[in-house]
Amino acid sequence: MTTTYRICPRSGLQFDKDAEKLMRWHAVAGVLALLLGGIMALGVILTRWPAVKLLEADVFYMWLTAHGINMLIFWIIFFEMAVLLFASSTLLRCRMATPKLGWVSFWLMAIGAIMTNVAIFSGESSVMFTSYVPMQAKWHFYLGIILFAVGALITCFIFLGTLVVAKAEKTYEGSIPLVTFGALTACIIAIFTIASGAVILIPTFLWSLGYIREIDSLMYRTVWWALGHSSQQINVSAHVAIWYAIAAIVFGAKPMSEKVSRTAYFLYILFLQLASAHHLLSDPGLGSEWKVVNTSYFMYFAVLASMIHGMTVPGAIEQAQRLKGYNKGLFEWLRKAPWGNPAFSAMFLSLIGFGFLGGISGVMMGAEQLNMLIHNTIYVPGHFHATVVIGTTLAFMGLTYFLVPVLFKRELLFPGYAKMFPYLFGLSMYMVALVMMGAGTLGVSRRHWDMAFAGAPMAYEWPGAAYLMMGLTGIFGVIACVSAGLWILQIVFSLLFGKKLEEGETRSTPIPLTLPAPTPGGAAHPPATPGTMVLALIFLTAFILYYFVNWKYLSSLWGMA
Amino acid sequence: MADKEERVPVMQQVLDNPFLLLFLGITIPTVLYVLWGVMEIANIPVAH
Prior knowledge:
heterodimer, A: mainly alpha, B: mainly alpha, 65% helix, 0% strand
């Protein structure tokens, strides 16, 4: 079978046509899952808004299950598989390994996603994203997730196979590009995640069929979180790779230090998955040594890695901007950045929100004592909406604006909305995450249909601020859902009705390898990045303050006198 | 010895080997998180 390549006239990127088609199908499937998960989000948010309380309890838990699974598994992983294909065959400019197997993988994922959704909407699998035993879903709920995971696992190995192809066919020299290295990190974490999922979900599937009598609930929770939390660490690696990619696409920025950035990814590979333990910090069956080693020692190496990326990405942008002459003061490079370009504004809002809201709160939750303040409260969804929605989803949405003309060869419709969208969606999600965390600090429960526990024998009187913050969660959540819905419409309309763009040259051999031109003398000493240093210091100050405020809060809850 | 190939640093050799990274990325969390955690749970005495 011969491979054909398309050279995109707008980006200069070379696409293996098989890989390109698979990327498009994965991206579209991901957006469909996002649409379904988004509709569910609207129902969930309008129910948790105390003044509205839209859905009945049984429907609420069904919608919450569908929201969690479609957003945290299907949308994200479909899109990440497209990123793996792009980062391997396109960035390494080589043919994709085993394209036929790529289709088997895609259809396994698609059938799995449909099967699980059918199980959820049939109404007997409202076990939520975590599906903790002894709650039991229908057998096809588990089987769907297993099929989806097997499909994703195959794509991970196709990614690794494509790296081998590129090396054998010498389509790159030296090390793989940094963005591909980030995708490799995501791929490795994905393989660990899926293997852990198989270890726990296959017995659970057999339990749902009656072949296994019992699954220990703590054993389930421990192994399941190696799937549940690590799947979100795939996101972190993937969206950081996208930050670097957008910085390179928009500014021509080069990493400040390849060595430092790669070392940071290496820390992710070794330690990021261990953060799964923070879900079990209140479980009495696991010892403090296990908890502290996993979350409070080794997890900090991964936190260090995130802080490195959080500094090197804006640092690379600052260097690129200063080389273009934006040298006035500390922040001219940032003021003169293309804030109307949605790929950039989405990426920058993703970076700031991920660091300040998701990162700091994640470290706080990872400390065993502080975790007691917020465990199983709505603070936890506040944290992961900051990481997964602001960090990952917003970065993916920003990248999609680049992909519409380059991958789908269509002109983007409604460019005015594209300029506005990252602010509308991103800032409303900032508010959602903040007020959820605020309500969680006051103790509002994570998932309960009715925060007031109306009719319970022992009523609890919440402070007015808790109701206010849940109301604000509703208001900003609706704005976020509507703006994301309009984004989906914009992308779908652009793909269906946008002006067809030039296909570009098609060839049967890849573009021959050409080494980059020698660096001009002036760029041998890249400019200093004082603006990024100031941003990093502001971040560290916020980090320290928030951390110690929580210790103070803990001490006031448990007075020693 | 201008022709002599430059020696690749050990760390770069590690980072350039995806299968070694895959081995490390699977083994470390499997040992520290999964196996250690499962062993702790398996050692909880059964109530009588």
